[in-house]
Amino acid sequence: MGRRRVTLADVAEASGVSATTASLVLSGRARELRISEEAERRVKATANELGYRRNTLSVGLRTGRSQTIGFVSDTVASSDLAGGMIEGAVEAAHKRGFLVFVGESGGDPAVERALVETMHDRRVDGIVFAAMYTRALALPDGLHDGPAVLLNATPASRSTVHSVLPDEVGAGRSAAQVVVDAGHRAGVHLIGAGPGLEDIPPNSTAAVERLVGMHEVFQAAGIEVVSAHRCPKWMPEDGYTATREVLRRHRPRMLVCFNDRLAFGAYQALAEAGLSVPDDVSVIGFDDHPIASWLRPRLTTVALPHHDLGVRAVEVLLGLFERRRRGNRTPVVHRVPMPVRVGGSVAPPRAGNA
Amino acid sequence: MGRRRVTLADVAEASGVSATTASLVLSGRARELRISEEAERRVKATANELGYRRNTLSVGLRTGRSQTIGFVSDTVASSDLAGGMIEGAVEAAHKRGFLVFVGESGGDPAVERALVETMHDRRVDGIVFAAMYTRALALPDGLHDGPAVLLNATPASRSTVHSVLPDEVGAGRSAAQVVVDAGHRAGVHLIGAGPGLEDIPPNSTAAVERLVGMHEVFQAAGIEVVSAHRCPKWMPEDGYTATREVLRRHRPRMLVCFNDRLAFGAYQALAEAGLSVPDDVSVIGFDDHPIASWLRPRLTTVALPHHDLGVRAVEVLLGLFERRRRGNRTPVVHRVPMPVRVGGSVAPPRAGNA
DNA sequence: GTCGCCTGCTAAACCGTGTTAGCTTGTCGG
DNA sequence: CCGACAAGCTAACACGGTTTAGCAGGCGAC
Asked: CA A14, C1' C27: Å apart?
């Protein structure tokens, strides 16, 4: 502890060459700039021996590239499900030799701006700007000072920033297809949103898109949704209440819940009513929240691929570094597929009492 | 976009002073080094006007301090509950002008070492080394090259590193006290660990310490635990199985579950058996996992203060920077209290059938 | 008058690397 | 014998700040 770190000059001196030569060798440009194999070998050996490590700060100062990216979110880290996005981003970055600054704004625009600025002060090569749940975001000034990618969000106003989003329409289709494939044609109810595209929680693009996908498939199969319940929040409590509401008036066969927490609430209401999943009522959810695998029976759900989203965002961002200058001015929306996780909560309707 | 950033030299020139003077003013050392108020005012004004921002890289290169800390964990970000630690750390750091590098090792020692090294390459001022669940960790070489704090972990071998841990013994006491205060004296069962201090999942210091605290209070109150079930993993499935086991042989009044997921499993088993919480059986858990507030009735639990743990770790680390040199060689263990979150799952035992 | 001290400021070195321009030496053609 | 050229290397500067040493001028004391 405390001993001065080995510097490039130390390596150069110890191997009897100039700092220039050592630099060229250690940044892999020896061949290209005609350094003898003998010298190259010697430099590498001493560097290794002395335990030399490049000072990334000084490299960054000189080259303008810091091998660092920023990850700014409203409240991803704390959320119980979206942490996977950070993990994916950090992992993908590390794989390419990048380190990630993580910042949380709590949704405060002033903090957002401060984070973006202080990251640029540290010369991050780019920034991933993420939202906990999919929605339209106002982009802070300063985000455009460097490469940036939106994760789980779209720009509120016109912008040239690329974005990475879950394929919610496809998810809606997938969920509906599970319902159709199980043979359900009647007794289908929606918990969380619908029936119209405007009956959604505020700003929830996910709700709209899932509805669009579902309608598409239901219509093709000739299925008419019996009832739909918009819930202002998508928590277990809301799913519980909405399901009780359904049970008061109907005899449902299939509940499509707009997320797994709603489905959890539905399970509770169904259990209270003495109904069995999936024998009496089938249930499907969205997100693949941890809770889905803890329910009995395991909930069938369409997964939000948080890890993949994080990975993808970083890959798009790193791709931007290389494609820079080639005036790529049109914003691209990258959709990450949402896979179905099959549990035991969906069964064919019981014969005779549909 | 694309315009060169404003540099210190620009500010100096525009305000008609030397770079030295500008530097002194902008780093707040003007008074101490006798710069006239007039000059100070002028420099500050032009800096503001030009939108000057310090290049943190170059400051770091010169001073050796980067206003940056590293957060290395096995798998905190992805875990569904411990993300709060990152959030707390990031927040506390930001409040003091620090940014946080987040790295995840997945438990791989090689990755751990690589992360610590690459963070030191970027001249982090210190590192928080965190574990998802409390346990003894082997510290990677290189961690001692700078200030470091262990979070949610203790060093496996002798070390001078400070650590920040939840007060698990106190949590055990608190849980037991809730039981005692509710009036329970009989029919108490443990789900997850015990009865002996060796009947625990591998490496789970949390289990041991919670047991110690509980025993202490139970003994003082003259309570004897009827049965205890060690579960290798603490997942809902395990809680479900263990509770069914209990119900086969006993008529429990109070289930103390070693975490909330076990308690969730217990709820499922109790519901299946037609028993009501808390009228027939009281339940208490640990962690304050999101699931606790979704259960019906809400689970009473002793919270793992993830956010506070993250905050505390960073505060201890930052404190180290100042206390440096004053040979503080003895490792300190900081305990963060675990508060009780009262739900509706604990009630006095029903008269007559104890 | 001169010595020392204080005020207000600056020139220059420095942090550790990347990069440009150019130097030496040897070979070869004419 | 001279010039052109290639191979192999290096001196010096740049990046954007901080820090050390010291300078010019005014002022009071002796």
From this structure: 32
